[in-house]
Design goal:
Helices cover 79% and strands 0% of the residues. The protein is globular and about 50 Å long. The protein has one domain. By secondary structure, it is mostly helical.
Length: 270
Amino acid sequence: MLAWFGAIAIGLSLGLLGSGGSILTVPVLVYLVGEDKKLAIAESLAIVGLIAASGAVPYALRKLVDWRSVLVFGIPGMVGTFMGAFIGGFIPSVVQLLVFAAVMLIASWMMFRPPRLEEGDHKPRKLWKIALDGVAVGVLTGLVGVGGGFLIIPALVLLGGLSMHLAVGTSLLIIAMKSTVGFLEYWRGLSEQGVSMNWDIIVLFGVIGILGSFLGAFVSRFFSQQLLRRSFASFLVVIGAYILYTNVPGAIGGSQQAHSSQAGHATNRP
């Protein structure tokens, strides 16, 4: 039952805030569903990709997707996501969750103090710089399983010179593209280890998330966006702190164990 509420919360937050809600997917899968951490990151990418793709369709039909930015930011983002997912296969899951917690705290700070996104005040950056930004955000997506909309939208407005409407639609499509690449790489790596994806959870969370996002978009008209963002930011701080609390001891213990093992090998050398 808690997992169901978690799935609904993911969709509602996406609809209410427009971005950032998908950052709840990994904690819900780990702490409410009981998934393995690395499997949760992989399935999170599939769920986020499904929700983002469904959200991108209406924007594309209304011609509110900037295809130039999809090529300049999105394609490098896919490369970065593949890199992040590949690297993630060699990093302990506890370390990935610690990075994820740091991302949550950064997202909460950006929601408390969002960047000014007035249109027409920013000159587009050089294409190669925008491409590097796409790679950087993509690596983060692949490494910890977040869509990164809270980073992509400001980047498209401040660096790419897009309007907010174009930035949101373009961001959703880019998130769907990046999430697909990241998921496929995790799926390949986990399959080689004999780990199977829980497709029923992916489909269930994807469908509930999509329906919840529509409901959230409707409900958001009755609340202040500033209040919603600050409330959600406070919630992210609590979740991020809890993830740190539950994973820092394991990371420290693992480091000490590795150090002890190395010391033991050194002592046993002739």
